[in-house]
Amino acid sequence: MKKQDFVTIANLSKEKILYMIEMAQEFEKHPNRDILNGKIVATLFFEPSTRTRLSFETAANRLGARVIGFADPKITSGTKGETLKDTILMVANYADVIVMRHHIEGAAQYASEISPVPIVNAGDGAHQHPSQCMLDLYSIYKTQGTLENLNIYLVGDLKYGRTVHSLIMAMRHFSPTFHFIAPKELSMPNEYKLYCKEHGIKYTEHTDFTEDTINDADIIYMTRVQKERFSDLMEYERVKNVYILKADMLRNTKPNMKILHPLPRVNEIAYDVDENPHAYYIQQAGNGLFAREAIFCDVLGINLEQVINDDTIIE
To answer: If both were cysteines, with which of 120, 134, 193, 229 could 99 make a disulfide (CB 3.0 to 4.6 Å apart)?
Structure first.
């Protein structure tokens, strides 16, 4: 069987995305199984993470796999000068699948080209975050009942925000209208605006973030201004508090509207929003478990029919 990686959302077809959503639905019904018993998952986190690492490790454990790996590259042989190539080839001796987060754009693609076992991209620099994108798609589908013809507002750090870059690519199949809301310093990169034009994706750009701006939204996707991506901390200080979503801004929004955020948040969503029925970011993070269970099974050659007929469910 040909090795199957999960490195980018850009090459997933509409049918494949809907297939993965259906698989995630099956795992939400029964998240605890022994379907990956005997498998070893390696989690290599060269960059800090809380939700992504823990949800991948939880997904592996709930499916009966065992987990090895590291969350701090300072404790690895990389500090001795070992190359990424050698690290990947070495770990592939021990694991059936490698989940990797790295600060360098393209690192996951490179790893997939040299690894004999599947690579799952858990985020590479400011480039892509495809597993986050799958849980975002699942969250949108769950809350809206469809992925088609939605008004999606992307707010905040659109320059470095790999989650919004991945979401644009995934939604190309579903006729969305995007609204990019960002300060000029953090506006959507031209390459993604060109991508929208090439794929017939409608978008508008705004610098204002007001109650009137967001009233037509189906999804408001807030993002954190990422301090770690800035080389100039003065620039970070100028833009970090530009857009803050507050509860009083939600008075006239559509009943179906949901607020998403890849987390962690700093102060871009006020705490008075948490109790609002439009808030969905905590549930969104919970959906990561089911999406990542689906990803593990898919790259390891377990199909939807096998998941539906799985007799290893643990109640």
So the answer is: 120
Residue given tokens 């609204």 in the structure block: 179
Contact partners, residue 130, CB within 8 Å, separation at least 6: 6, 7, 8, 9, 121, 166
CA dihedral over 157, 162, 165, 167, signed as positive or negative: negative
Considering the candidates 51, 103, 172, 206, report the single residue annotated as catalytic. Answer: 51
Query: Which residue in 129, 142, 224, 261 is the catalytic one?
Result: 129
Residue in 283, 280, 289 with CA at minimum distance from that of residue 30: 289
129 classed as catalytic: yes
Residue 101: active-site member = yes
Q: Which residues in the chain show pLDDT less than 50?
A: none
pLDDT of residue 79: 59
Q: Residue type for 99, please?
A: V
Check 53, 62, 101, 142 and give the catalytic one: 101
Active-site pick, 2, 80, 184, 251: 80
206 is catalytic: no
Look at residue 1 in the predicted model and tell me its pLDDT. Answer: 64
Quick check: 57 and 99 in contact, CB under 8 A? no
Q: Is there a contact between 162 and 123 (Cβ–Cβ < 8 Å)?
A: yes
Q: How far apart are CA 239 and CA 14, in angstroms?
A: 36
Q: Would you state the pLDDT for residue 214?
A: 95
The predicted pLDDT at position 103 comes to 87
What was the pLDDT predicted at 313?
A: 96
Could you read off the pLDDT of 252-280 as tens digits, one per residue? 999 999 999 998 888 899 999 999 999 99
Judge whether 80 counts as a catalytic residue. yes
- What values do phi and psi take at 170, rounded to 5? -70, -35
CA distances in angstroms from 287 to 31, 59, 138, 157, 284, listed in the order given: 11, 11, 7, 23, 5
